[in-house]
Amino acid sequence: MGSDSGKARGKSPARRGICLVLSSPSGAGKTTLARRLLASDETLCHSVSVTTRQPRPKEKEGVDYFFVSRAEFEAMIERGEFLEWAEVFGNLYGTPARAVEKTLAEGRDIVFDVDWQGATSIARLLPNDTARIFILPPSAAELSRRIHNRATESHDAIAERLRQAAIEISHWNEYDYVIVNRDIEESLEALKEILHAERLKRHRQLALTGLIAELTAGG
Q1: pTM reported for the whole predicted model
Q2: Distance CA 1, CA 192 (A)
């Protein structure tokens, strides 16, 4: 699939950017797929969230997250600075609205890695800019195995992650696309195809009106 920065190149009409929103239960592969998709297309941007949780090893400020205190986060909520925000496992996460709008207006596409609540908020506020994709694990047994293998918490914490996974999955039918992640390469190719189709949607190609006028002027 050829890349497209969203700006006019040659005879290609300019377009507005896309919010490509990925959601899944914990352990289904959403974050891995988001990273692989970003690595495959240099024109894509990653939405960098603000969070109150502590940085993990190798995470970088402004690259993985913007790390703030709970008081700072709550002040940002009061100022209306978030496109969406939610509390997950005791930590707050939010998407800065101003940066998203600027990126979309420049015709650049943004990949979001958020839960169903975040996806709902983004779609509500930016309905014409959003394509939502839900990533499912291939089976309940595989989901349970992944959560147990990746978790370093207590038995109760793992049970809570499984409970939250069931809640997340219950919202699958609110999404535009669903990918069952049986194989990471196949799932990545499906993501690329979705992005390509979304880029071609009529309402995103802002320069089409002028092009149509030019093409029909002599008719």
Answers
A1: 0.81
A2: 7
Least confident of 90-99, 139-148, 162-171: 139-148
Amino acid, single-letter form, for residue 14: A
Confidence check: pLDDT of 1 > 60: no
pLDDT at 151: 54
* 3 state SS of 34: helix
Length of the chain: 219
One-letter amino acid at 45 equals C
Domains of the chain, start order? 19-48+108-214 (3.40.50.300)
Nearest residue to 101 via CA among 116, 122, 70, 85: 122
Q: Give Cβ neighbours of residue 108 (< 8 Å, ≥ 6 apart).
A: 5, 6, 17, 43, 44, 45
The CA-atom distances, in angstroms, between 113 and each of 19, 48, 117, 177 are 11, 9, 12, 15
Mean pLDDT across 151-157: 70
